Amino acid sequence: MSMPHLTQARAPLTREVEVMNQHGERESIFIPAERDLTVYVDKRELVTLMTLGAHPEWLVLGYLLNQRLVRSIDEIESVTVDWDVGAASVKTRHGIDRIEERTAKRVVTTGCGQGSVFGNLMDEIDQIRLPEASVLRQSELYEIVNAIRLKESTYKSAGSVHACALFAGSALSLFVEDVGRHNAVDTIAGWMALDEASGPHQAHGMLPSQVADPSHLKKVFYTTGRLTSEMVIKSAQMGVAVVVSRSGITQMGLEVAQRVGLCAIGRATNKRFLCYANAQRLVLDAMPPEAPVVSAGESKALSA
Amino acid sequence: MSMPHLTQARAPLTREVEVMNQHGERESIFIPAERDLTVYVDKRELVTLMTLGAHPEWLVLGYLLNQRLVRSIDEIESVTVDWDVGAASVKTRHGIDRIEERTAKRVVTTGCGQGSVFGNLMDEIDQIRLPEASVLRQSELYEIVNAIRLKESTYKSAGSVHACALFAGSALSLFVEDVGRHNAVDTIAGWMALDEASGPHQAHGMLPSQVADPSHLKKVFYTTGRLTSEMVIKSAQMGVAVVVSRSGITQMGLEVAQRVGLCAIGRATNKRFLCYANAQRLVLDAMPPEAPVVSAGESKALSA
């Protein structure tokens, strides 16, 4: 497989600004950077993404993959990001078939707002078969939650970003923060496709979910954001059968998780969590003692 | 002015589901409902919104206004929502001029994900002049934060929704929850346009920001979500010069607030807040005693 050529565009992730507090005092705080990145595919303008800008090349690759505009990174010759002009130029090897038609239909989704999914992602999910052998141990889940707690860097310094991460069992593979959580998951998808293409188990134009790669069975996707339908679909598209969230789930997110056989775990903080769907993928090897201390925020969010 | 005819479609806002907790026990919780609502304008499919579904008619009106597809509700003859088929049929009085062209350009924004703004909203913001006399008192801000704390209903029972509210001074005009916070603000925009059209100060096809309505000066927009550029733009489009958020601000949100003269207040909990832009609109009449108790979450989010 030919690997795409990627730039490594860098830009500061936070910006210091002066604010006024409740005492009328001036203070300096950091806020997350936010940049517009217009994606051009073979010189044709596709979309403008608003991003923190940590890994723009992976973001663009993952965006094209998750929107199903390309099936494999094999189709991409290069991604060239230039922050001076806010542009990502994608050069494909053979063009994208019917790109006009395939980017015409809009679904405005939840993602805290009105996301944009081209085409008919919902139609595709019935073709996804997640591997039955993919499971997560409760002890690994607790390690994941703890690893995230120690990690979040831009959030700790500036707040207002979402984090996503990819784990292999409890080992952190990649941690991504972005102002938009769909950008964070797309960035992970881009990195994952590159990682698989460069590893011993090459994908060669197959869907990630069709790859019979044993390392895939240990993959877990973590997000600080809610498990909306779009997040669940993207995880399933990446062939990841277990998702963990600090937040809750929406009804469509739950319906999609049930439909594709994805194990959806939410409200994961400390030793607490709720498994919303496909609990058979969760091995309860580390149950905490009964009646743990319930934090105020959690009980508020869950009591009727 | 002719008021549009609106249905009053109703649907349950939460759904009870069975989950498994960390002790391997089954329990019942509520999750927010989430429905797809496909908007047709004069029988032409425009967009599919994923929504909690509390006020679908106001949502559709506000969406059309905030996307600048219509300038006044005067242009709308009716909005007919039918949850059985997940459709909102909009009938305009005279059609929407150049609708194909104006819905062609996509900007995928932050809104926790990849939102969709048709056209060139950013180009429009320089035309917005927010009234200089619009101010908020600190004492009113504290009343707003407290009113929200007492209010949030779906969030309390099911979590995973965002809330927006419109205040007149410290008096709550409308409180809206939705799975997508852009839906919540669009719903407020729709309600506000109806309210102004039916009141003594009729808008007659003017932009809300151009209306010389004294009651407008007291308007404050509250959101539980982050102050992204899109949230700030939508508030400015509604002619509301003060926004308050429980969360923080992104860089583009701050830049837009500075550019349009909008007072942006974030991290508003209890007696604490940060004013990010245009602090001259905030009258400090209720400063708390020095050195208040800082909650762990807040200090974490703000310390570098």
Characteristics:
homodimer; 304 residues; alpha/beta; six-stranded mixed beta sheet; five-stranded mixed beta sheet; 17 strands; globular; disordered C terminus
Description:
Two copies of one chain form a homodimer. The first copy, chain A, has 304 residues and is an alpha/beta fold. Helix content of chain A is 27%, strand content 30%. In chain A, strands 12-11-13-14-15-16 form a six-stranded mixed β-sheet, with helices on both faces. A five-stranded mixed β-sheet of chain A has the order 1-6-7-4-5, covered by helices on one side. A two-stranded antiparallel ribbon of chain A has the order 2-3. Chains A and B meet through strand 2, strand 3, strand 5, strand 8 and helix 5 of A and strand 2, strand 3, strand 5, strand 8 and helix 5 of B.
